[in-house]
Amino acid sequence: MFRGLIISTALLSAMPALAQEASSPRPSSPQTEATTSTPSPADSVASIIDAEFPAYDANNDNMLDKAEFSRWMLALKDQEMKSSGQKLAPPEITAWADGAFTTADKDKSMAVSKTELISYLSGGEA
Does pTM top 0.70 for this prediction? Predict the structure, then answer.
């Protein structure tokens, strides 16, 4: 559900640009058209992570330890719960954050890299 929220947010942020492209006039001659590509969900997630990562990487080591990762995930979970009206008890939220860290830390280094975070939040598409 959380990954869906991130992907939905990324796609919604791209919608105004997509709408503008769709309404622009097409050339009258059938010459070669420039191909436009829509960024993949992993690319959109990566751009969000690149922008937000420094705010959560408190010790500036380009990795998120469990506390740094949990702070970010809990902020996102709080936004998700507010938008969906969902309520979870604090122990459930803590258990969710612990599970998210364990899943995201693919190399079991006790820290999550940007690459691991992108892969986790994009559902393994990175």
Answer: no
